[in-house]
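Lab meeting, item 3. Inverse folding demo.
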């Protein structure tokens, strides 16, 4: 469970998109290694086939696609049960709803469900706590804990509210173009006490 904390605009989402290989977010230095394999030149679908998945900060607002259809489609490939996945993040009541018409918080839970459904080896999770109410945050935390049983998690966040439900094992601050001030969860307390700029 690796957290990257950083202020708005630090490049947290860009980092995850570059790791996932999203077009427009090219790696200009370094490499992306997945279980020792260099995947830097691979398309997102090829990275996904190797077990990498990304939960976007702002989930794609798919128009005309129902949540249940989306989960069934992903589960056909991965061999999961869409209803079981929906249960984990409590979105069973949304299965007949259109993805593009969900509220922000509902969309975050469904986005997490799509990542759980992929059964990834490594899950990149972008701001799981943003726009999520306190009760939904507990649900998101349970979903992430379930995911963490079988996958390595890299979570980026500027607030770290999710740490109440999902304690990190390692935390680094992304600031000024690099990873700084790495440690355990005490780094989160330091960020809350001193802010990002004074810390690095
Ligand atoms: N596709 C893009 N093209 C050009 N600039 C971009 C693009 N995506 C992001 N940026 C810029 O890169 C910087 C980092 O953005 P990014 O979304 O990675 O930050 P972040 O750390 O996730 O911030 P936040 O906490 O506000 O979500 C910002 O200044 C942003 O405007």
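The presenter then showed the designed sequence:
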């Amino acid at each position: 469970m690796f957290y990257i904390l950083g202020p708005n605009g630090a490049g947290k989402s860009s980092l995850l998109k570059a790791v996932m290989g999203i077009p427009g977010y090219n790696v200009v230095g370094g490499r992306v290694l997945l279980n020792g394999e260099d995947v830097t030149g691979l398309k997102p679908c090829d990275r996904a086939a190797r077990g990498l998945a990304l939960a976007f900060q702002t989930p794609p607002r798919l128009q005309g696609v129902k949540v249940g259809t989306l989960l069934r489609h992903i589960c056909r490939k991965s061999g999961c049960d869409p209803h079981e996945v929906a249960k984990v993040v409590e979105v069973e009541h949304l299965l007949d709803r259109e993805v593009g018409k969900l509220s922000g918080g509902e969309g975050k839970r469904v986005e997490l469900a799509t990542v759980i459904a992929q059964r990834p080896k490594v899950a990149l999770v972008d701001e799981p706590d943003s726009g999520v109410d306190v009760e939904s945050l507990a649900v998101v935390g349970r979903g992430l804990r379930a995911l963490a049983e079988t996958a390595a998690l890299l979570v980026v966040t500027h607030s770290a509210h999710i740490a109440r439900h999902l304690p990190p094992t390692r935390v680094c601050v992304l600031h000024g173009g690099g990873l700084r001030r790495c440690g355990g969860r005490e780094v989160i307390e330091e960020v809350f006490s001193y802010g990002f700029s004074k810390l690095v």
